[in-house]
Design goal:
This protein has 144 residues and is of the alpha+beta class. The protein is built from three helices and six strands. The protein is elongated, with a radius of gyration of 22 Å.
Length: 144
């Protein structure tokens, strides 16, 4: 019976780790769209607006700077960009320089919300997993 409990403990830990990882990745993706953690240095080669289910509300902006690597950016960043524009920004700096003109970038409402929600999700996942583990353990001992 002990090996079953250990197996469940490892499964519970894996579930918690996976939940925390997904919450952290979601938060990171939204923070990264602000361009704050990203170093940008080059010329905008493409700027593409992709409409989603609700145009004007959940649009996706993709930008490519010199390297051809497309980055998803917030609307607040994209509206200042144009193809051929020269951009410069150091990683973790909130000032984006476009053709010599400085623009402040900040986290979106979605990013702020996810930075609050991610730790809450981690706690909820941990609590539910612990509760399930303890409840299952109590039921097994009561059945013996």
């Amino acid at each position: 019976m002990r090996s079953r409990e250990r197996g469940f403990t490892w499964a519970a830990l894996a579930l918690v780790a996976t939940g925390v990882l997904f919450a952290a990745l979601a938060a990171w993706a939204l923070v990264e769209r602000s361009a704050i953690p990203t170093e940008l240095n080059g010329t905008v080669t493409t700027l593409e607006l992709r409409h989603e289910k609700h145009p004007g509300v959940d649009d996706v902006w993709m930008v490519s700077i010199d390297d051809g690597d497309h980055r998803h950016v917030d609307t607040d960043v994209a509206v200042h960009l144009s193809e051929g524009a020269r951009v410069q920004k150091d990683a973790w700096d909130s000032t984006l320089v476009i053709d010599g003109s400085a623009h402040q970038v900040e986290l979106s409402k979605d990013a702020h919300a996810m930075l609050v929600l991610a730790p809450v999700l981690a706690v909820v996942i941990s609590a539910l997993t612990l509760w399930t583990h303890l409840r299952t353990r109590a039921l097994r001992h009561a059945a013996q």
